[in-house]
UniProtKB/TrEMBL annotation:
Ranges for region Disordered: 171-194
Name used for this protein in its record: CoA-binding protein
InterPro entries registered for this protein in UniProt: CoA-bd (IPR003781), NAD(P)-bd_dom_sf (IPR036291)
PANTHER family on file: COA-BINDING DOMAIN-CONTAINING PROTEIN, CYTOPLASMIC PROTEIN-RELATED
Gene3D superfamilies named among the record's database cross-references: NAD(P)-binding Rossmann-like Domain (3.40.50.720)
SMART domains: CoA_binding
Amino acid sequence: MNHDAYPDNYIRGILNSVKSIAMVGASPVNVRPSYFAFKYLAQRGYDMIPVNPGHVGKELLGKPFVASLSDIGRPIDMIDIFRNSSHIMPVVEEALTLDPLPKVIWMQLGARDDAAAAKAESVGIKVVMNRCPKIEYGRLSSEISWMGVNSRTLSSKRAPVPTQGMRLSLNRMSVGGGDTAASDRAAKNKTEQS
């Protein structure tokens, strides 16, 4: 796998197939990126599990923190690592002791460990590095274009807030990867102006 450029189908396949996500490095502090990602993914229907030994005894959005992956006690589809690169290998090594193994190990933006990725892939685990599942979900579902991002259309109208557990289709095509209603309108307007 080329970890510098993931095909959309690879990312889409992962996000469509996983149901439970253990977020290592999750924080209950509502201004931390891990909090935003945890909340966003939980609102999209993923079963989120916060993992952080410094917050055991606390909850994150009603989910109790666990100290380690082995404390979860049930199968996990994906491990989302919200730690810097120097802490990735120990997390991957712990993940490899789980039974059953997770399907995916995802390293957040700025996090990369090629040796850890190779170790996980050698036992059949899919790996994503230096990407955020929150951003990828928004991009692939075209949800990110609700705000006018990358759609060539800006609106003063506030986008509807998704309800708890709302999950958009990840089979939509973005402006960069195909047509959407916004790109159709932009192309039509460009043709009409010419």
